[in-house]
Amino acid sequence: MIIRNSLNPRAAITLIEVIFSIGVIMIGLLGLLSVMPLAGGRARDAVSLSVGAEMGDSIAKEVLVRKWLGNGNLVNMSGTGVAFNQSTQLFSAGGTTSRGICIDPLYRAVQGGTVTSFNSYDNSLFPYYVANHDPLLNPAESDSTWEPPSIAPWPAGEAGDAPRLTRVGLSGVNAELARTIIESVNDLVVQQPKDTTIPAKLTGLNSGETDYGRRIPTGEFSWMATLVPTQNRRFANLSIVVMQNRVVDIDFPNATLTPPILPEMNGMSERVAQVTFASGFSGGAGGVVHLTASATTSSDLAPNDWVMLSRRLSPGGQQVHRWYRVVAVDQEAEEIFAYSNSELVSGEAALPAPQSGIDRTDEELWRRRVSLDGPDWEFNFDAAFEPDSDNTFQDNTFATIVQDVVSVTERLIPWTDL
């Protein structure tokens, strides 16, 4: 006979304890699952930054070695392949001011070197807007440009249109070869002879030739470059802009399409906004800007995106372009109206009055507060851009928002190396 001791019952686990334990485990698993997408995203960002930095360094060296600017390999956005003329196109006739170029081999090759324009859009320039486009108006409308009166107003002026870079490509390069030249350097299938006068040769793909250790490029990463002379013309700022999964098709509307209904139907890959307020940008710590643009332009912007600030030092004078990384941005864009009570908000920029022939009363805009990381920037308060000087902030700085940029590598190089 078995005698049980009621004072020392047999140890056991109750159903309630089992359910409670499962609940604790499930909470832990859910926490782990919630972290995995974030960790995966951070890992992808780390890979992108690593590839971008590697490509930036390699391409900067490639540009210097190949001397594209000096050997006549650069061509304009023209179906006839007109060579880019450094002496007349990069500098003004008097040689006192400089313009700058955007070396974009893939874009020119994919577009077949064809200039496409529609109202304020013009893809022969970077960004692809005419110089007198007003960022507070819809670029797809026919009246979206400034109409300067006799007095040079801010910010256009008789000869002071917004700064633009001339978009150029490489001579004799088709779309297939252009992709291999500008895509990830680890996957290049192009043989480039030491003699720079001999054109590059495409290997692999359908050529029947594949060098050992070379792979067909994935096409995920590509690049373009901006080249801007310094004020003394002895040096140039070379910026290698690396992009991931870039769309190189023309993404702005044209005359054969219906007018864009949504902001996303207007140009997305290159958007322009106006700086209506700024602080900081001293000591190399970046600063804060308010970007303002027409509500017909997308306000999509996120941390780690890149923007290019551009301005002229004087009406019709020297252009300055520098790249900045977005550190933080307001969660939502603020909806505002232009010219209501002659200013955006109390204490901020009183925007220029409507020009003759254009009714911009209560133009719908968006505005976002953006923190940028990058070099110092001198904003303009010159009376030439603000004839009615009243201490309001009316700067001639513009921001170009470029889609899919993962890194920008900058070099200050002597002209003799180009």
Give a topology summary.
Blueprint: H1 15-66, E1 74-76, H2 86-90, E2 101-103, H3 105-110, E3 117-118, E4 121-122, E5 125-126, E6 165-170, H4 175-182, E7 190-191, E8 201-202, E9 221-229, E10 235-244, E11 270-280, E12 287-294, E13 306-312, E14 319-329, E15 334-338, E16 363-373, E17 398-402, E18 405-414
Parallel strand pairs: 2-6
Antiparallel strand pairs: 1-6, 2-9, 3-4, 5-6, 7-8, 9-10, 10-18, 11-12, 11-17, 12-16, 13-14, 13-17, 14-16, 15-16
How would you describe this structure in keywords?
418 residues; alpha+beta; 7-stranded mixed sheet; 6-stranded antiparallel beta barrel; 17% helix; globular
How would you sum up this structure, described in words?
Helix content is 17%, strand content 26%. It has 418 residues and is an alpha+beta fold. It has one domain (46-256, 263-417). Strands 1, 2, 5, 6, 9, 10 and 18 form a seven-stranded mixed beta sheet that branches. Strands 11-12-16-14-13-17 form a six-stranded antiparallel barrel. The longest helix is centred in the N-terminal third of the chain and has 52 residues, at 15-66. The chain is globular. Residues 148-160, 185-190, 204-216, 340-359 and 382-393 have low confidence and may be disordered. This is Signal peptide protein.
Q: Summary?
A:
By secondary structure, the protein is an alpha+beta fold.
Low-confidence runs:
148-160, 185-190, 204-216, 340-359, 382-393
Radius of gyration: 27 Å
**Number of DSSP-assigned strands:** 18
Percent of residues in helices: 10-25%
Average pLDDT rating? 74
- Tally of separate helices: 4
The CA-CA distance between the termini, in Å, is 103 Å
Shape: globular
Beta-strand fraction estimate: 25-35%
Instruction: Provide the succession of SSEs.
Output: HEHEHEEEEHEEEEEEEEEEEE
Largest sheet: 7 strands, mixed
Count structural domains. 1
**Given the helix and strand composition, which structural class is it?**
alpha+beta
